[in-house]
Amino acid sequence: MKISMKWLAKYVDLPESPQKLAERETVTGIEVDEIIYPAEGLKNIVVGQILTLEAHPDSDHLNICQVAIGEQQPYQIVCGAPNVAEGQKVIVALPGARIVNNQKIKKSKMRGVESRGMLCSLQEIGFNENVVPDEFKDGIYVFPENETITVGESVFPYLGMDDTILNFDATPNRADVLGMRGAAWEVASMYDQKPHFTVPDVPEETEMADSKFTNEVFDNNLAPTYRNRIVTNVKVQPSPLWLQIYLWNNGIKPINNIVDITNYVLLDYGQPLHAYDFDKLGSKKLTVRNAENGETFKALNDNEYELTDQDIVIVNDEQAVSLAGVMGGQSTSIDAQTKTVVLESAVFDSIRVRKTAQRHNLRTEAAARFEKGIDVATTQEALDQAAQLVQTLADGKVLAGQVVGSQTNLEPTIVKITIEQINHALGTNIKQEEIIAIFERLGFTVQVEADILVVTVPLRRWDISIPADLIEEVVRIYGFDKLPSTLPVSTQTVGGYTTQQQFLRNGKTFLRSLGYDEAISYALTTEEKAQAFTVEQSTLTKVDWPMTRDHEYLRLNLVSGLLDDLAYNVARKQTNVALFEQGRVFVKSQSSAVRPTEVEMLAGAITGTVQEQTWETKARLVNFYDVKGDVEQLINSFNKQGRISYQATTSITQLHPGQSALIMMDDQCIGFIGTVHPVYAQQLKLPVTIVFQLNLDKIMALTDQSQIYVPASKFPSITRDVAILVPKNVTNEAIDDTIRQAAGKYLTDIKLFDIYVGTGVPAKYKSMAYSLTFQNKQETLTDAVVNQHFTKVQTALQNILGAKIR
């Protein structure tokens, strides 16, 4: 809630600066998230009046304006706004002025004509596009003719930009400060004051409202309070400037005087109101009921919604004219032809309003208040306030009486507490008189019965219902800084990570050392992304109340989220990105299972160059083998027993069929690695991208590998090279296994150093060259022994794989 200091000062005498007030308010429990100075960074912006206007000789849309700014001679300013006209009072940025984004205005020439300054729109002096009235969105701002505006003076006071705005970040239980009057009670209690409010006085006509209009509430649980007033002979026109200022300083766009009045009362009382065009209602009756399944409703935002029987609607016996507590309907909207207005003030079922707003993705100021709660004691007064303003600002005539469909119980809450309870909870020794004074500052009434305080809580503080709530109020006003400081008494234990926590942290630390950055993605995603990049079959888990349609299913993989993160970065020209995520996926082996099994996973995704271009090297894009090396180092860092191998696969359709493999530890699949399929990458607008995913639960379950120190050998090693021709379908792994089985105990290393296909090599064959290293750590190895083992290797390659020795 944005709190205008000028508006607040109408209700409370403010003894301190906005900064001091913000500090005190934050200490008492409601954080002031931001202090806004609307005119900050702007200067030399004044009110001007256009004296004459003529078309620019070299342009079909520019005009040359002579503008009075309070000096002896007018300024010549060239302007291209479509709504510029003679006689208008406008916003003028003089030469040397600073407008939005610290842009400096200078004297210039526009197509050969000198221009001294600039005629400004509201957006150009810092107003958000969303609050600018529709008539000024595409042009300059023009001050209303009926307002007293002095030419040459600063525009800031006339536009409310000399105000200071405090942004109250109220917690959900403190919705009472979502209105200026509630905020005034909060601030007044800090300074031991009582806010001073005016009570609306509505002169009424002799004709009774209920003789012209009726209402009905089918179920009082839907609308515990429902009231209407009728105002006739209204004149719909723009609101006065003071009212528009209050609205746009709170982020609300002015529409017309009737709609603006309902929004003003919402900001003042925290009570949402709605206005209907009486002549468009047809039946002259409003009924509150549940919607019917499949019933349609066209809202003020021009969107049509299909309703369910969980929505509350207000109907005119023919169709829904309002989605209760959320948004009004297009069919009864206020326009320039409206003559009679039906004002509505109500209390709707907060749970249904919240679910309706969520179901239809309609987040409005009204819904935000209804779902958190409103002051039921001011529903009637807020309606009278709106009727009085319509009478004043729209020349309306208010018919006698309010039409009441339902009225909730207005009995205040009574809570009993003792001084001992309060002091025991706070560790203080506050006297009874001081505690009673605190309650009275908050507007509570107190009666003393023996040693019990009987506290009557006003309806505007519906968040208070138990003794603990009263204790919280006492300490807020008394001061948290006054509480005694004591050290906790407990058994001290040495903290530490569990084995699993340390294992997960080690994996993340190692990937950071390889240059990967950690990302955190939503566990909820779309159906397609949730089941992509999976090795094992699993049933998806769908949530009943998703926050959006893009977050309906629990993920079965981490890669989809990483690819979304990569796409986000690439779209913003960050093309060399390596990300990883450690998190859980949610697997259900049977569709009948209620809850999924949570499995710890670790995934990575990388795109871009791994070697930048320099004077001696060329840039090189990441490839499958770069990431394969990272994965092998990562798995080795876990220090688990088992031989790492790779098994080509085409089962993961989102990966390139020729560049993807399952990662095996002995005979168990622990993950996969591969290049993202070009078609899938194109959909995400990604270049070549390599991904991997490891099942950490499976890896953690493996036996740890003992670390034994082995000293470096004192004896030399001997190498032998072998080049062979093998069919193209023979894998490096098969050759490696064959060599290891035949080479004997002295083989210490195998390195593939060449692969060749082309001239001199038969079709469907490939040439592969290996370097074998032999070493005896006990004595010097002789050539004769090495040759004996090398011969066995050549024989095995020929007999087992059909290789030809080159």
From TrEMBL:
Cited CDD domains: PheRS_beta_core, tRNA_bind_bactPheRS
Q: Which reaction(s) does its UniProt entry say it catalyses?
A: tRNA(Phe) + L-phenylalanine + ATP = L-phenylalanyl-tRNA(Phe) + AMP + diphosphate + H(+)
Q: Report the residue ranges that make up the TRNA-binding domain in this protein.
A: 39-156
- Which InterPro entries did the record assign? aa-tRNA-synth_II/BPL/LPL, B3/B4_tRNA-bd, DNA-bd_dom_put_sf, Fdx_antiC-bd, Fdx_antiC-bd_sf, NA-bd_OB-fold, Phe-tRNA-ligase_IIc_bsu, Phe-tRNA-ligase_IIc_bsu_bact
What SUPFAM superfamilies does the entry give? Anticodon-binding domain of PheRS, Class II aaRS and biotin synthetases, Nucleic acid-binding proteins, PheT/TilS domain, Putative DNA-binding domain
Which molecular function terms from Gene Ontology are attached?
A: phenylalanine-tRNA ligase activity
Q: Which cofactor does it need?
A: Mg(2+)
Which residues are noted in the entry as Mg(2+)-binding?
A: 463, 469, 472-473
Q: For the FDX-ACB domain, which residue ranges apply?
A: 713-806
What PROSITE patterns does this protein map onto?
B5, FDX_ACB, TRBD
Question: Where does the B5 domain start and stop, copy by copy?
Answer: 410-485
| Keywords from the named record | Aminoacyl-tRNA synthetase, ATP-binding, Cytoplasm, Ligase, Magnesium, Metal-binding, Nucleotide-binding, Protein biosynthesis, RNA-binding, tRNA-binding
Cellular location(s)? Cytoplasm
Q: Which domain of life is it from?
A: Bacteria
Q: How is the cofactor bound?
A: Binds 2 magnesium ions per tetramer.
Predominantly, its location class is cytoplasm
Query: EC no.?
Result: 6.1.1.20
Listed transmembrane segments = none
Which protein family is it in?
Belongs to the phenylalanyl-tRNA synthetase beta subunit family. Type 1 subfamily.
This protein's assembly is summarised as: Tetramer of two alpha and two beta subunits.
Name of protein: Phenylalanine--tRNA ligase beta subunit
Q: What is the lineage of its organism?
A: Bacteria, Bacillati, Bacillota, Bacilli, Lactobacillales
